[in-house]
Design brief:
The protein is built from 5 helices and 17 strands. Helices cover about 30% and strands about 25% of the residues.
């Protein structure tokens, strides 16, 4: 069967299933959590996707060459434990470049085998990784490519907002000493000494006396944390929802806010009824006049009976 770049939904499903099974079989052989060097898959005349029997793991697109790594892992969701898959690519200018890279990091790796000492890290964020093309890394699921969302409470407005999740996978290899890269951010921080608070710069210099960081310092800390996380070979997964459920914190905030709005609406309705009752009266007692003035301060005083003017 002739292949095209544009696959039907059925082809995509069959292809994905074949790749997942290939990784699962290899993981059973080499151990759970192994990173597998993946072949190219082609569709035969029966509509079955099979690994292409080539002697090199280098794959090609229209304008580049790359190695592809895949991994099977277990993730925790609202439904319990589920098996999931991660993929990442190593691009190069030539096949020789990629072969030289592979011979250095895992010289015995062949198609379908485990790439030794390779760690794939999934980075997920509510901020786009690319300013030029943010949709490139948008997380989707299902045959229709449904965008996955995280429900987040906006603490300035008190509203629950839907935010897209951006996801990229990166691979890491240890250095010559077998150590994976770990980067710690250099941050501004508030230090307490003898009952006083002051802000300390990343270089240890005292900036000023203050118990809080300013906006510039907070932005620096956020950027540093993000930058170091992207260079560190440690899992960094934010818990997210499937677009149909609220996270626990958001659910609590949503319920609390809904209840508060309902209670406020009930109180307002009761007050409106009471104001209407008082304003409908031709004559008010002194107590009623004070109540109406408190409810509607601009109300013109109604006639007060003489019996109620003396306290």
């Amino acid at each position: 069967m002739q292949q095209t770049n544009a696959l039907t939904a059925a082809q995509q499903k069959a292809h994905k299933g074949a790749v997942h099974k290939f990784i699962a079989d290899a993981s059973e052989k080499y151990g759970r959590g192994s990173v597998i060097l993946l072949p190219k898959f082609v569709e035969d005349d029966n509509g079955t996707w099979v690994p292409e029997n080539v002697n090199t793991p280098v794959r090609s697109t229209n304008d580049s060459l790359f190695l592809r790594f895949g991994k099977q892992y277990t993730k925790q969701t609202a439904k319990g434990s589920e098996v999931a898959y991660m993929f990442t690519n190593k691009f190069g200018d030539t096949a020789d470049d990629l072969q030289a890279f592979l011979s250095h990091v895992s010289p015995n790796a062949t198609i379908g085998s485990a790439v030794k000492n390779c760690r794939i890290v999934c980075h997920e964020s509510l901020k786009p990784f690319s300013k030029v093309n943010p949709k490139r890394d948008m997380k989707v699921a299902g045959e229709g490519g449904k965008e996955l969302l995280k429900y987040v409470v906006n603490y300035e407005t008190g509203e629950v907002e839907k935010m897209p999740i951006y996801s990229i996978n990166k691979f890491f290899f240890p250095d010559e000493n077998g150590v994976f890269p770990i980067h710690k951010p250099e941050l501004f921080k508030v230090v307490e000494s003898n009952g006083s608070h002051f802000v300390m710069a990343p270089n240890g210099r005292k900036v000023r006396e203050d118990a809080f960081l300013n906006d510039v310092e907070i932005e620096h800390n956020e950027n540093q944390t993000e930058l170091c996380a992207m260079k560190t070979a440690v899992d960094r997964l934010i818990q997210h929802d499937n677009g149909e459920e609220l996270s626990n914190d958001a659910t609590k905030a949503y319920i609390a806010r809904t209840n508060a709005k309902s209670e406020a609406a009930t109180r307002k309705a009761a007050l409106d009824i009471r104001i209407a009752e008082l304003q409908a009266k031709t004559t008010l007692t002194a107590a009623e006049q004070m109540e109406l003035n408190a409810l509607v301060p601009t109300t013109v005083p109604a006639t007060v009976t003489e019996d109620d003017t003396t306290f």
